[in-house]
Amino acid sequence: MNPVLYKFHVRDLLDVDEDYIWNLNRGKMELTFDDSEVVIADVCDVQISWYYWALAEAYRDLQITRKLFLDGRTFTDDLHRKMMFEAISPTIGNPDFDKEDVWLLSYRDIYNRIYNAVVTRLVEYIGSTTSLDALELMCDEEISAANNAVTDDLGTIDHAYETISSVVRRKYHRNPIVRAIVNKTVKEPQILQSIGPRGRITDIDSVIFRKPIKRGFAMGFRDIIAFAKESRSAAKALLFNKDPVAIAEYFNRKLQLVCNTITKLHKGDCGTKQYQQMTIPEGKEGDQMLGGLAGLFMLDGDRLVEIKEDMQHLRGKTISLRTTLCCKHLRNQGVCETCYGMTSYGIPYDSNPGHISCTSLCKEISQLIISTKHLDFIVHKFLVLLRGNDATYLRVIPGQNEFLYLSEKVKPDHVVLRILADEAKNLVQVKYITDVNNIEVTNLSSLSTAEFYVRDASSGLIDGVTLDMVRSSTKASLSIDLLKHLQVTGWETVNNWLYINLANWEHDKPLFVYPLKHESMAEFGKRVEVFIRSTTKSDGDDDELADVHASSNAAKLTSYNDADRALYDGYRLISSKIKGIHIGHIATILAASRVTSARQGDWFIPNDLFNGEFKSHDEIIRHRSLSVQMLYGWQQQTYNDLSCYLQHKRPYNPMDGLIYIPPQS
Q1: Are residues 108 and 166 in the same domain?
Q2: Are residues 117 and 147 in the same domain?
């Protein structure tokens, strides 16, 4: 056992300088914390942990405990953020601490100093990777056997990925590549595509090549076809760094004009008794949702409890949740700290919470589009799962992973399927094709939503249900069997909708198929925009933007009367591609998208969860603030719109100060 070289109380080390800490000899130290706990620690752990005690030097009443000690753990970005939070957390909600003073000390004396120490004092410990590290993994017997077994069958690619992921963690703890994976320095899918097969590739139009690339980057490609397929990744990166990024950033600007109506963050709790109901799923999806809910408050008995990411017992349960949509201050264009959640602590004084929420979402969309080449990883195990109301009309059959069937509980003679005409523009071709068996179904339809109705005795349509048809970033298409059905029965076109009568449909035939087509990050961004802004074409859109909206028809907020369901579906849509978006931010965006009563000319945000309505953002901009409308565009149309002169009471907007109105004489 190594002898103890030093004995210190943590308070003794607060009074020494940085050079003294780093000049300590490497070895063991007996360290006593403020709660009298004693540990035998490595000096190197003390040297890193010392920086997190800076707040206790400035505020002597703060306790230094083992939570602020590295304690043999690998020092990663995640651990750094956790220890930063542990250092700050005793000051949160305490009126004796000004949060902006705490932030200044944290970034100056903790974040900046520890960064400088890591890059200047630990140079000798910086590791590197070489081709030999990759070769060590590739030559493993299990990994080599899995790679050699790869064929065009996608299941063999999944097996190779699973084998690599398992083996490297089990056998190669010291391999620099494995350490990078475990410490989350690199994305695991990128390593899998190097050590294992490259897998499936999409073309620039998002169509997936039917045959995968069976060799990875570390093994090297051996044929021109593989090189040609892989070249599409770079082509997408170049393509998406132009117009798609500009469109995503324009969406960000438009969203800010609506969300910045929520201008104030009020201290404390507004005292509302209204709560949103949120059901947390089981399994990994539930764990992901708990991460998105962390920091919000839920009702537990008669008291509010902060939701923690590790509250596994909440999975499979419905909770009563406080969000911005519940807040009493919304009518006055504010939100309280309790309804906004613990993320309110990170908002500086006099900052606009609505603006912060919308940029938190939009920055992720833009970054994903820019990072398409590295992050657009295709899931090979495609499995259709029913969600929400899906089981009312649809079912899945084990082994038929890419098909959706009509539920056997439904009598097809009374069912009508409704789809958007813009999502089946070429469907008319089935009337002129003799044999549809070999047709590419994605050329005829690509559905983000589908609606089912029951035809009553008077031939009216009732009991409408709207279903989200996107699974694993893939849109559904009408199946070959349904196309054959349409050749016989046809369909009815009304406005922008196609009505398909399912009379005489056989339950053993698939209604929808999920083809080899992948939704790109750019297409996903368009779908989020249409959902939130609830418009298919903005007034004054140029042809390019009009095409963007038309090609991305999705469910819209204006179709929801239930704010609970709108929040759940909005989260499900956004989290399908973006991990880590806080549900509180989504709720704030949705709150800014509601009005009290458009019919009565009241376009203020309602402070009642159960009264109010979602309206399109184009309408909201026009009726809430003319200064925003002037900045947004199409000024002449606004001057000519009589309704603008009838709207006298309008909410304040931070942009109002940019418009000069001369005094009346």
Answers
A1: no
A2: no
